[in-house]
Structure formats: structure tokens, C-alpha cells
Amino acid sequence: MKFRLIYLFTILPILSFGQIKKNRPLEIKVDYGVYGKVKNLSFSTRMKNYPFNKATKIQLISFDGYEYFDIDTNSKTLDNMPNLRMPICLVPATEIRTLNMQQIDKLSSLFYNYDYIRKPNIFGDIKCYEPRNGILFLDNKDKVFALIEICFDCEKMHLSNPKIKIGSEVSSPKIALIKSFFKNIGIEYGVTKKFKENFN
User: Fold this and answer.
1) Which of 73, 108, 123, 157 has the fewest CB atoms within 10 Å, i.e. the most exposed one?
2) Buried b (16+ CB within 10 A) or exposed e, 143-164
3) DSSP letters of 85-137?
4) What secondary structure letter does DSSP report for 197?
5) Is the pLDDT score of 70 beyond 70?
6) Is 80 exceeded by the pLDDT of residue 24?
7) 138 DSSP β-pair partners
8) Three-class SS of 154-179
């Protein structure tokens, strides 16, 4: 009996601790900070956020941002895009990937479940904003009603509407996770291929 009590109070807590450690979500250490999964919001809860709640289709795209700087100021917005003076609205897409439900689940989790566990003391320098990628939210007429324009080089986002909710603040780790998501979906330009002349 005494042996059983010793087992319960010594061995089992060690096993339990090992199990908890094994199941902890991936954490990213950046500039002395720690970034990882801080919430466990369900898929249905995440889908209540705009623009996910209005979208019938979500697409990841890449585009040649360099073309934008050569376009005349009177250039028209692309047919299915909002009338905004943003590169993503003026330049045809180089690559397009439409997300399935599993992929939407993953993307929304990156938006709403991940944040700093401990914020860093040091932040990197801000580089020039030259977007090459974006996330499109389309309605039932296949028209884009909301979009997120992304520059993975300088790790910044521009939102087409202040109503767009992306969970926690935009940060380098969040952008890094989204960049990895783009790569896994198969988007290359702006992710693993930097310039159009290298895109074959």
C-alpha cells in the first residue's frame, strides 16, 4: 500500500508533466520575446469576425508590385476589386489559390489564436513597403469586398477596411506564420521568389 502511494505521488506527476510539455503548441522566440498560441477560439467563433463572416470564398494571391510603380495615376481598378488606390487592386494576380475549409480554419487560427506570450524588448527596423501578396475575401458574386495586402519583406499589412479584424496587432511573428502558410499553399512569388525575373 505504501509503495502504491509513493508511485501515485512521484511517478504519475512526472508522467503528467511530460505529457503536458509534449502537447504544448509551437512557440517562436523572437528578439527575446515569445510568440505562440495564446487562445483556443473555435472555428465557428473565429468565423464571426469580419470579413470571414461575409466571405463565400477566400483566396491567396501574388502580384508583381513593381508594375504598380509604372502604372499611370489614372489606371482603373481591376474588375473584381474594390475601387481603392492600392497596388493589389491595380495589378493582375500572378498566382491565385482558393482555400478549402481546412485551410481557412488554419488561416483564421493564425489570425485569432496567436499572439505574443511575452513581448520582445527590441523591434527590427521598418523597411520600404513593396507588397507582393494578399488575401482576398469574395462574396457570392465572386467580387472582392475586402482584402489584406501584405509585404513579407518589411513585414507589414494594409487592410482595405478598418472593420477587418485580424486578431492581435500586426507583428513580425504573425507575418512570419502567414508567410509560412502562403508557402505551404503553393504561393511562390513574394514568398520564396522575390523578383519577377526569377519567376518562371
Assistant:
1) 73
2) ebbbbbbbbbbbbbbbbbeeeb
3) SSHHHHS-EEEEEE--HHHHHHHHHHHHTEEEEE--S--PPP------EEEEE
4) G
5) no
6) no
7) 57, 144
8) CCEEEECCCCCCCCCCCCHHHHHHHH
